[in-house]
Here is the input.
Amino acid sequence: MKWDELDTTYLRSLVIAGGGVWVGVQEAVDPDNTLVLFNSPFHKSTLAVPLKSITVDAVQNKIQASNKTFVPPLASHPDFAPFIRKLRELIDEFEKISEETK
Here is the structure.
């Protein structure tokens, strides 16, 4: 399936509204396996949500779940303590804004 500009604009808007940084669409032979790709604004890792279930909430949930896997391992290293405090503040602020906009 080829994406036209309108499809891409719509998907990009869902990702941005959910707090992600747009990457693109990874097409698959089986359309059920096509993924919408975006980066976390916090740790820059690439995340994906299946095209068939892409929503603003799905993007937010994926980012929030990913944040929880990145912050705890770094938190144990003393050199990262100030960074981790700021990152947690940003994550808390993002989650608060996400809840307010629902």
Q: What stands out?
A: Residues 5-100 form one domain. Residues 18 and 60 are 5 Å apart (CA to CA). The two ends are 31 Å apart (CA to CA).
